[in-house]
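#onboarding

Welcome to the new folks! Below is a worked example of what a typical request in this channel looks like: someone posts a single protein sequence, and someone else replies with the predicted structure as tokens. Don't worry about understanding the tokens yet, we'll cover that in week two.

Example request:
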Amino acid sequence: MYARCSRILEREIEALRGIGELQKQVHDAVFKREWAGFEALLAKASGIGTELEALEEERRTLFSELPGFSAAPDFETGFYRLSVCLPPDEQRDLTAKYRELRMAGRRVRINNENLLAYIAGIRATMAAFIESAFPGRKGRLYARNGAVIPQDMSCMVLNHSL
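Example response:
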């Protein structure tokens, strides 16, 4: 059980590190406005997400094999239930890996939140700019055919060739 759990934790940590590297690339692409290859980064992130789901299922299977667990337990319950049954050196090793996994997960979450906050700030700045530049339009933008463009600016493209 120790060896299987240890391998799962190591693979999850590596997957989260991979997501961290992709986050840096996405962050750099957003800041530099380099959109070529952006979809490839998102596809890689999706692949890593699929890998993490598979590891989670493997972990659920491992914990369901523990004595006294009839249903799939949450990660912490299963992890601590397994770790208390181990010798002290294996317990320390597994606990250190678990701590590293939690920290890697927090880093990924914090980096995501920072990027989303940056993007939200840019959207708010653009909305304020458009409102002040074109006060008669009351914050509305229009397409070439006269249709109103949604206010969330999810599909806004600036033409720099003019």
